[in-house]
Design brief:
This protein is of the alpha+beta class. It contains six helices and eight strands; from the N terminus they run ββαααβββαβαββα. The chain has helices at residues 23-30, 33-36, 46-56, 112-127, 142-150, 179-184, and strands at residues 8-9, 13-17, 68-75, 81-91, 96-103, 132-138, 154-165, 168-178. An eight-stranded mixed beta sheet has the order 1-2-3-4-5-6-8-7, with helices on both faces.
């Protein structure tokens, strides 16, 4: 499958592979309890972030089920790392992908996650030829749910207490968009 050319440029972001120099900025995001609250992992130590970063450099090809494209979202001009944008290749045979995003709280509410996630959807649909891309979030994470709706993703499921996460039962929301819907919408090309 084709690979995206880096950096991917938006109005305000450069989306690129992670670099070793991103360690401190990534640590400043991933060590925060408010960032990790609705995620599967707890706030990470610097060493844990160093390990995560080493797994992201260089980004893998997107050829097999389970491949993950985890990219840095950097503000144009300043070069500040504001978050990460993730595209998982869930099934080559079924043309299924999953998106995810984590933005530093200081930069939330400015539309940066939506700007970056739109580019991931383009990579998935236009670059990888996926049929369907979905996103999941904790049922309490209203901001992520609203973002996926703004991206033109429809809510497909609300799973009640389906997972034990960090010692408590949590709901999960699932949103998705088909390639045909994306291409025909005002959110995607065409």
């Amino acid at each position: 499958m084709p690979r995206p050319w880096y950096p991917i440029e938006t109005e305000r972001l450069l989306i690129r592979p992670f670099e070793e120099a991103d360690l401190e900025d990534l640590f400043a995001i991933q060590n925060r309890p408010d960032v990790a609250r609705y995620l599967y992992w707890a706030p990470r130590s610097r060493e844990e972030v160093r390990q995560v970063l080493s797994e992201r450099i260089p980004p893998p090809g997107m050829d097999a089920d389970g491949d993950v494209l985890d990219l840095a979202a950097v503000l144009r001009g300043s070069g500040v790392l504001v978050g990460s944008l993730v595209l998982f290749l869930r099934s080559v045979d079924q043309g299924q992908g999953e998106i995810g995003f984590v933005i530093h709280p200081a930069y939330q509410g400015q539309g940066l996650a939506a700007e970056g996630a739109r580019e991931l959807l383009k990579v998935g649909f236009d670059g990888l030829g996926l049929h369907r891309i979905y996103g999941r979030c904790d049922g309490r994470n209203a901001a992520s749910a609203k973002l996926m709706e703004r991206l033109g993703m429809r809510r497909e499921a609300h799973l009640i207490e389906n997972e034990m996460v960090k010692g408590e039962w949590t709901d999960e929301l699932i949103f998705a968009v088909l390639q045909t819907e994306w291409g025909a919408s005002s959110h995607g090309p065409g």
